[in-house]
Design goal:
Largest sheet of chain A: 5 strands, mixed
Strand content of chain B: 5-15%
Largest sheet of chain B: 4 strands, parallel
Structural class of chain B: alpha/beta
Strand order of the largest sheet of chain B: 4-3-5-6
Number of helices of chain B: 18
Shape of chain A: globular
Mean pLDDT of chain B: 94
Low-confidence stretches of chain B: none
Number of helices of chain A: 8
Radius of gyration of chain B: 21 Å
Strand content of chain A: 15-25%
Order of helices and strands of chain B: EHHEHHEHEHHHEHEEEHHHHEHEHHEHEH
Largest interface: A-B, 18 and 18 residues
Shape of chain B: globular
Radius of gyration of chain A: 19 Å
Order of helices and strands of chain A: EEEHEEHEEEHHHHEHEH
Number of strands of chain A: 10
Oligomer: heterodimer
Structural class of chain A: alpha/beta
Distance between the termini of chain B: 38 Å
Low-confidence stretches of chain A: none
């Protein structure tokens, strides 16, 4: 009995394959998103099935999630990333009461019931300022890698104040900060604070702990600290945070959803 | 009941119309196939899904021919009154006088949606110094400037004060462009202090007697201007009769809302209900025909309920919807995602409540105007939303924000907080621009997630 979850996100496609009577992860993988979403997902899926020693005929059910979920032709059904992240977090951090998910294109805050189901949620609007896209723009502008951002933010003595609420304007603002002599470290710390502040503004500060951080941006060093600082509460990074949505989708597939 | 209920596209309506005609459909003079409106430029109709009943066809045709009616009224020598922002008060007075026709130029805010921007009204507003930092009702400015959407009214009347900052600024610009405007003041509604007499308003809000008197005095000036335009005196008897007629419309809508929002399966889609509710404000420039249109819908709904027929069954999540959407397509989207509308606050609840008939008519209108949910505190509005959501058994609340609308900036958060506290149901805030095509995927995700959340809660 094989089940799969495919998370077709804005920046990457993530797939988790589950198997066994008490389903456990048999294989999981990530591929960069592209124009041929369905084909990219299928190539990764076939590879992961092979790794799990299974064939297509062994697969009982596939759930697709993420912004590209409706383009995944092999999926039996689609479920939103809100529900899938909640299911994934429930599996890796059963006590979690709040989930912050920051992906490449959007950010979300989920309030969970004690049983791990979603009680309420908030998502950012069309602006990218509270998302991973902001970090990509900043890293590109400063000529550094995403992996360098945490160390840079850690070196900051005086985080820059980023006042723009739009990535496009913020980029202009960063140019101005560089021209005025602000250090790249302070700019990175300022941007991370800005993202954290926007996410907190979206969901409010009054969040039930434990707070678990998921999505690709959770892997960017320094972001969880920025969130914890903005929230005044500890923030725990989920195990393999980029895979949480796909894991949740696979678990929901196993439950017959 | 005119056939089993379902939602159909504009293409489907072509054959459905032929079928209804062959079955002996009798239409008013503004009747005809829906397609002609799309051919006239109402392009959005091609992307909407409509109820398939003859009553819904009549509703849409009535809505989309208002401009024709206004021109016919002008040709017949009637005077046209442009009522602005009060949403339901001034037309009651205007229609109580002979030879006056009232309409809301505010309604132009949906034109960029219906015409998918081909009208160019928002661009004209841009050039007049009213950009998209303002509510899309700025399209009205473009409509006045181009003269393409409605005949120029002989009299413009606008409520100002607590009603809406955006709207006041837009009408001030209109005034600068040479349009005379009669302003009347709407105070911010507040509860009476211990030393003041308290007045209970339609819908349950309260205020001080002094505020009612202030609004009554303002409305008396409006009345004088209408009398001057009409050349007739508006007696208390005539106004009382006008109030009874308006209440007739409100009773029909009250019954329609009660039936549609509570019935399972849902007998009428959200889009048609939104359009029907709007009739309470402006009668689409024909109060008598409004009664006919609403009676037709009510009859259809009763027939569907009696037959156990509907469009969405018990699986559909019961949603209370706050604020009208700038893009009508989103009402369809909610239903595609598994929701149905069970309760609404489209910012004019006061136009759905009955106008008091046991007090002098001018005071009755003043009380009704002060019951406007938008002229009091957001908390009061939220409390009414909670009350109505409870009454209709809503399982969740969607607060739809209008881009640029100043009131939306703060009230959404307040309404969401109060609803969560009082009802303990999930609340979703959405922003819907006039043409939301590029945002439909993200809007869909949110609405689907909301439906999933409520259904998960049902399982628990």
């Amino acid at each position: 009995m094989i089940f799969a979850g495919i998370d077709a996100g804005s920046r990457a496609i993530k797939i988790v394959v589950l198997g066994g009577p008490d389903p456990r992860v048999l294989s999981a993988g990530v591929v960069d998103q592209g124009v041929r979403q369905d084909a990219l997902a299928m190539e990764l899926f076939e590879r992961l099935l092979g790794k799990a020693g299974a064939g297509r005929s062994d697969v009982c059910r596939i759930v697709a999630t993420g912004y590209g979920r409706n383009l995944i032709s092999v999926a039996d059904t689609t479920i939103t990333e809100i529900t899938c992240h909640a299911a994934g977090v429930r599996h890796v951090a059963p006590a979690a009461r709040t989930v912050i998910d920051i992906g490449g294109q959007d950010s979300k805050m989920l309030r969970l019931n004690v049983d791990g189901t979603v009680r309420d949620f908030a998502m950012n609007d069309r602006c990218a300022a509270g998302t991973g896209r902001f970090l990509e723009v900043v890293a590109g502008r400063l000529g550094v890698g995403l992996d360098d951002l945490g160390e840079m933010a850690g070196r900051s003595r005086s985080p820059a104040a980023i006042s723009s609420t739009c990535v496009v304007f913020a980029e202009t603002e960063i140019t101005g900060l560089l021209a005025s002599g602000a250090s790249p470290d302070d700019i990175v710390a300022g941007v991370q604070q800005s993202i954290a502040t926007r996410v907190v503004a979206m969901g409010g500060r009054n969040l039930d702990p434990p707070i678990v951080f998921t999505g690709g941006v959770a892997m960017v060093p320094g972001m969880s600290a920025a969130l914890a600082d903005a929230l005044g509460q500890p923030v725990e990074i989920a195990r393999e945070p980029q895979m949480t949505g796909a894991l949740g989708a696979a678990l929901l597939a196993a439950r017959g959803r | 009941m005119s056939g089993w209920p379902r939602q159909i596209t504009l293409d489907d309506w072509d054959s459905r119309y032929a079928e209804l005609r062959a079955g002996g459909l009798r239409e008013p003079e503004y009747g005809g196939p829906l397609r002609r409106h799309a051919c006239d430029g109402d392009l959005r109709l091609c992307k909407l899904r409509f109820d398939n009943s003859a009553a819904a066809l009549r509703l849409w045709n009535f809505l989309l021919t208002e401009e024709d009616r206004l021109h016919q009224a002008r040709d017949a020598g009637k005077k046209i009154v442009g009522a602005m922002k009060d949403l339901g008060t001034v037309p009651v007075m205007a229609y109580a006088l002979p030879d006056l026709v009232a309409f809301y130029p505010d309604g132009a805010w949906w034109t960029p949606c219906i015409m998918e921007g081909s009208d160019g009204l928002l661009k004209v507003a841009d050039t007049l110094g009213v950009p998209d930092t303002f509510c899309p009702v700025r399209a009205m400015l473009g409509a006045f400037a181009t003269g393409t959407q409605f005949p120029r009214p002989e009299l413009l009347i606008c409520s100002a004060g607590a009603t809406c900052d955006d709207f006041s600024a837009i009408v001030q610009r209109l005034y600068d462009l040479g349009h005379e405007v009669l302003w009347w003041e709407m105070p911010h509604r507040r509860r009476a202090e211990s030393c003041e007499n308290k007045v209970v308003l339609p819908g349950g809000f309260t205020c001080s007697a002094g505020q009612v008197e202030m609004v009554r005095a303002g409305l008396c000036q409006v009345k004088e201007s209408l009398e001057l335009l009409s050349g007739s005196r508006l007696t208390n008897e005539a106004l009382a009769a006008g109030i009874r007629r308006a209440n007739g419309v409100r009773r029909l809508l009250g019954e329609l809302r009660g039936l549609v929002f509570k019935a399972d399966p849902c007998p009428l889609p959200a889009l048609e209900m939104l359009i029907a509710e709007m009739l309470a404000i402006h009668f689409c420039s024909d109060p008598q025909e409004t009664v006919e249109v609403l009676s037709g819908l009510l009859s259809e709904v009763r027939g569907r309920i009696a037959a156990g027929a509907g469009i969405w069954g018990t699986a559909a999540v019961r949603v209370f919807w706050v604020n009208p959407v700038a893009d009508l397509r989103v009402m369809n989207l909610l239903e595609e995602c598994g929701g149905r509308v069970c309760g609404t606050d489209y910012m004019f609840c006061h136009a759905l409540d009955l106008i008091p008939e046991d007090v002098p008519p001018m005071e009755a209108l003043a009380r009704m105007a002060l019951a406007d949910p938008m002229v009091g505190s957001s908390r009061e509005r939220a409390e009414r939303i909670c009350r109505d959501a409870r009454m209709f058994g809503s399982e969740t609340v969607v607060v739809s924000r209008i881009p640029g609308a100043s009131h939306c900036g703060l009230e959404g958060g307040i309404i969401a907080e109060v609803v969560r506290q009082e009802l303990g149901v999930p609340v979703l805030e959405l922003e819907v621009p006039p043409v939301s095509d590029a945002m439909l995927p993200t809007l869909r995700t949110r609405l689907e997630a909301l439906v999933e959340t409520v259904r998960e809660g049902r399982r628990g």
